[in-house]
Q: What sequence folds into this?
């Protein structure tokens, strides 16, 4: 199973990227996780329970929906993978269900998680409530201010939300803090990372818990259209929704894979979150990948209208897919994403997350270069209710 | 003076070696220089000099903030090396991997040699990821002490003891630097176990804050690293008073090293 699933090598590398750059105190915990993961992944009962929870609690499978009126989608079939229809409103919950089941299997009583905008925090708090596990969420002080509603939501779900200081007081610092807290309580605590980032085996594990998106999409395409998509598009912050959908198509060399990074105010402006496009190779949060950083190796502040993409690193497997040429990475700026957000709302009656709006914007651009025989699939990774206040404030 | 001779001298005097940690450039390089002088005057044996980094995974609030202050005053890797070169005490650099990687691994090792650095500790490269850097440093006679954590399991402990050089850095408790008050994690037993595996000196750090903490290590360890407590001692006072506060605490710690 590991080889056909494109698993990383024994040291946790996808090509030249990945690995395990962590303090010694965490090595044993990562080893323990790796062993438990191998056991769980080889156990059909583990997957049966995971898929049952996704069906009955999350509401999977999610539809693959063909847009009718979206500009760009009239002539070329554009299909949306509706991850926005998942319970809690985004793909994040696929991963938290998997990790909570694994934590329970390992006998861990307490979950910790980092969160930026709050979506992963809410998804972790949700499974914590469902499985009766104690949840502590670490969140940058600035993000707590900006996302007050999600903080309240997590608390309603029974989680404790901890404010994190530090240089930027955002997601990056929240991850640092979660690692520190984990180091102090590795015996009884499971760290639920929200994206395909961190030290091995996290990038691999999170991808495997998101690949359900791609597996469903592939089957839906074959059933309905009798062929594979020509293009698969997904936004990339850390990159979990993108790897989730890409992973089912990696071996299909005719399927073009597009990762859309957040250009922010424009890659040239320096006020961007596009780590692959504007960053350089470095080590952040336990793995070697692309990082937005200074020449001195200090991590830079990022900028994106979308909190979920506002991260200075990117999952190591994306760095590998870019280097190998299997996937192509492009950027969409804040203004283009906002326009796509409005366009999808007004023409299709679907309000996308600002993160997903980046993927929509690129699909509209790409559709101009495609024909009626093509199939353009976009991973609509989340719904946009969380972004309404921000959109409203901008008008 | 090299690491082995420093520990040898302390051992001959029947005491622990005192290894203070300070963040280079906190809050500026000039203050660091004065602090180094006071540490030498108080009888410290070696100094661990932190290279500032904005995302220090292994450090608690005290050292993380010290790093931010140092970055604010523009302390670069090159500035840290220049400071080290003038240090009255032998210097071990303590820095995260990314700034070293961006500096260039071979260039960094060369710059360390030029600055007379005796050792380098990189807390976020454990055994596996440190091979290239370790080779580059050892080729220039610079030691690379490795950390053993309370969670490190026996087969790995043996490998760490084989690969470490200079000394073995024994982490006294779970968590990050600067935390205290936790129960000691079978430290006595861990130290005895390490004795049977290596002839390298054993230095205990993370959460060692007071002279009493140091005294408890007598007869078990060969040295001790004290960082956050020293930084706390001078972080919130004027630059003039900083040196004085550091001297007072370092002196008390040095006396505790004698038993």
A:
């Amino acid at each position: 199973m590991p080889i056909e699933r494109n698993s990383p090598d024994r040291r946790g590398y996808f090509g030249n990227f990945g690995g395990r750059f962590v303090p010694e105190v965490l090595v044993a915990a990562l080893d323990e996780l790796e062993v438990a993961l191998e056991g769980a992944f080889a156990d059909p009962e583990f997957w049966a329970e995971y898929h049952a929870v996704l069906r009955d609690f999350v509401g999977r499978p999610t539809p693959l929906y063909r847009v009718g009126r979206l500009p760009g989608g009239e002539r070329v079939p554009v299909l949306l993978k509706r991850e926005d229809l998942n319970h809690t409103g985004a793909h994040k919950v696929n991963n938290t269900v998997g990790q909570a089941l694994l934590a329970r299997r390992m006998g861990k009583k307490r979950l910790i998680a980092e969160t930026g905008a709050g979506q992963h925090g809410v998804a972790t708090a949700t499974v914590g409530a469902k499985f009766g596990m104690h949840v502590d969420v670490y969140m940058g002080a600035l993000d707590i201010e900006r996302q007050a509603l999600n903080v309240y939501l997590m608390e309603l779900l029974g989680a404790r939300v901890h404010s994190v200081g530090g240089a930027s007081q955002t997601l990056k610092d929240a991850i640092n803090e979660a690692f520190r807290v984990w180091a102090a309580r590795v015996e009884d605590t499971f760290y639920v990372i929200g994206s395909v980032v961190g030290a091995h085996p996290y990038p691999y594990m999170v991808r495997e818990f998101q690949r359900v998106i791609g597996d469903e999409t592939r089957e839906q395409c074959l059933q309905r259209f009798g062929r594979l998509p020509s293009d698969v598009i997904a936004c990339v912050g850390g990159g979990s929704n993108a790897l989730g959908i890409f992973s089912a198509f990696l071996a299909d060399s005719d399927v073009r894979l597009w990762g859309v990074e957040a250009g922010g105010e424009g890659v040239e402006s320096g006020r961007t979150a596009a780590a692959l496009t504007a960053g350089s190779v470095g080590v952040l949060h336990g793995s070697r990948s692309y990082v937005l950083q200074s020449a001195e190796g200090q991590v830079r502040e990022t900028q994106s209208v979308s909190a979920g993409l506002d991260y200075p690193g990117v999952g190591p497997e994306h760095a590998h897919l870019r280097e190998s040429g299997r996937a192509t990475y492009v950027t969409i700026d804040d203004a283009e994403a906002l326009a796509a957000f409005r366009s999808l709302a007004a023409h299709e009656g679907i309000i996308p997350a600002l993160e997903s709006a980046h993927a929509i914007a690129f699909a509209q651009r790409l559709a101009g270069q495609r024909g009626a025989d093509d199939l353009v699939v976009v991973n609509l990774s989340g719904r946009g209710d969380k972004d309404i206040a921000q959109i409203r404030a901008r008008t | 003076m090299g690491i082995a001779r420093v520990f040898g001298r302390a051992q001959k005097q029947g005491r622990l070696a005192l290894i203070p940690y300070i963040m280079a450039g906190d809050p500026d390089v000039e203050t660091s220089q004065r602090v180094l002088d006071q540490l030498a005057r108080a009888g410290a044996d070696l100094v661990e000099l932190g290279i500032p980094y904005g995302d220090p995974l292994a450090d608690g609030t005290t050292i993380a903030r010290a790093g931010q202050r140092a970055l604010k005053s523009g302390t670069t890797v090159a500035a840290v090396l220049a400071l080290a070169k003038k240090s009255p005490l032998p210097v071990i650099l303590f820095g995260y991997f990314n700034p070293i990687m961006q500096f260039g691994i071979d260039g960094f090792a060369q710059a360390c040699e030029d600055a007379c650095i005796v050792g380098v500790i990189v807390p976020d490269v454990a055994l596996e990821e440190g091979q290239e850097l370790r080779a580059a440093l050892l080729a220039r006679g610079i030691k690379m002490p490795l950390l053993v954590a309370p969670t490190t399991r026996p087969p790995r402990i043996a490998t760490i003891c084989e690969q470490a050089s200079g000394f073995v850095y024994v982490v006294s408790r779970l968590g990050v630097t600067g935390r205290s008050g936790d129960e000691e994690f079978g430290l006595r037993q861990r130290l005895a176990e390490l004795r049977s595996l290596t002839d390298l000196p054993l230095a205990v750090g993370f959460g060692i804050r007071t002279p009493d903490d140091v005294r408890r290590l007598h007869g078990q360890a060969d040295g001790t690293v004290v960082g956050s407590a020293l930084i706390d001692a001078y972080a919130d006072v004027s630059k003039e008073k900083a040196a004085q506060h550091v001297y007072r605490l370092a002196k008390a710690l040095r006396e505790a090293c004698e038993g």
